[in-house]
Specification:
347 residues, alpha/beta
């Protein structure tokens, strides 16, 4: 049975509480619950779109890369970056999906171009092959966006003995970034954008990364597993930024907001939650891609390194997101888990 919701503020708070019980991840959207449209310091806010934050920016001559290009915020980011003139390396699980995405965002009136690549995040050899194919092109990479991800797997799934959220959301990008760090550092000012989430400090285990339970076999909760993988994204960006501090390359993590993708829509229906009830706390793909595109392209971000962005502005994350010791340990553990695929990595 579906619940009917009114739209006044009191009922909105009740509605948000109901949604947080049915789907814990929506509780992470509290900051987006502010219905005001007042711009934040950057001039943009929670309702800004990717097209708006990149208006007037010419990306001609720049090369970008994005994972998870065929749906949701990834597709919208691909569309807007090509629209602004960038040549985008578009990565998806299969070449067919990547090709379809590229074909649909390029053509008359679009200044940029897109090249499709297959990159299966549960197959480290696929990531290695994809990265090596890109390196062979010999181009610098001005923008590298780690966007692909998975969330809410109802049952524990393992990839080579490691919990699947952690593999896809963190380890896969750890390999990709390390293998492509040279062409990013060779750019005039390379930017690495890790798409994280405020679930990193709202849903992750209280102790942070559970290094003794990366298999998830001691205990498994979908929301905590997702939160842990997003904390790993934040800590990866933090340690990467430290390692890049004496170069011209920057690395930052962004929370795009909770976005109404096909997967989100299906999840709401499966749990008998009316998608209209979540209108105030769930963004459109265009709004979700705004912070990604802002951090990837805006001149105001050129000196930001190791920061957390939300709603197109620097924000202060909670939990363990600024734990430098945990970030250093995560890097070492990630190296151990992926060492066979980091032979050519730059450090």
């Amino acid at each position: 049975m579906r619940t009917n919701f009114n739209t006044n503020r009191r009922d909105f708070m009740i509605r948000a509480a109901t949604l947080s019980v049915v789907m814990p991840t929506l509780d992470a959207c509290a900051s987006f619950g502010n219905e005001q449209d007042t711009p934040l310091p950057s001039g943009f806010g929670p309702h800004s779109t990717a097209a708006e934050v990149t208006a007037g920016i010419d990306l001609g001559g720049k090369t970008a890369l994005i994972t998870g290009c065929d749906a949701g915020t990834g597709y919208e980011t691909l569309r807007v970056l090509t629209l602004r003139g960038a040549h985008v390396y578009a990565l998806s699980r299969t070449l067919e999906k990547a090709e379809a995405a590229c074909a649909s965002v390029t053509g008359p009136g679009v200044k940029g171009d897109a090249t499709p690549f297959a990159c299966e995040h549960t197959d480290f050899a696929s990531i290695e092959a994809c990265a090596d194919s890109i390196r062979k092109l010999g181009s610098t990479i001005d923008i590298l966006i780690c966007n692909a991800g998975v969330y809410g797997l109802p049952k524990l799934e393992l990839v080579d003995g490691i919990e699947k959220h952690f593999v896809i959301n963190h380890l896969a990008h750890f390999i990709l970034v390390n293998r492509l760090l040279d062409p990013v550092k060779a750019a005039r000012q390379g930017r690495i954008v890790i798409v994280g989430s405020d679930a990193a400090f709202k849903q992750a285990p209280d102790a942070g990364i559970e290094f003794d339970n990366l298999s998830g076999q001691h205990s498994y909760t979908p929301s905590k597993a997702y939160g842990q993988s997003k904390l790993a994204n934040g800590l990866f960006a933090l340690e990467l930024a430290r390692r890049l501090s004496r170069t011209g390359t920057i690395a930052n993590v962004v929370h795009p907001g909770w976005v109404m993708t096909d997967r989100m829509h299906s999840f709401l229906l499966e749990n008998q939650v009316n998608p209209e009830a979540a209108e105030k706390v769930i963004k459109t793909p265009s709004q979700g891609a705004a912070t990604i595109c802002y951090v990837a392209t805006n001149g105001a971000v050129q000196k930001a390194n190791g920061q957390y962005f939300e709603d197109c502005n620097v924000a202060i994350p909670g939990g363990h997101m600024r734990d430098t010791a945990m970030a250093s340990r995560l890097w070492a553990v990630s190296e151990d888990l992926t060492r066979d695929y980091l032979i050519q990595a730059a450090h």
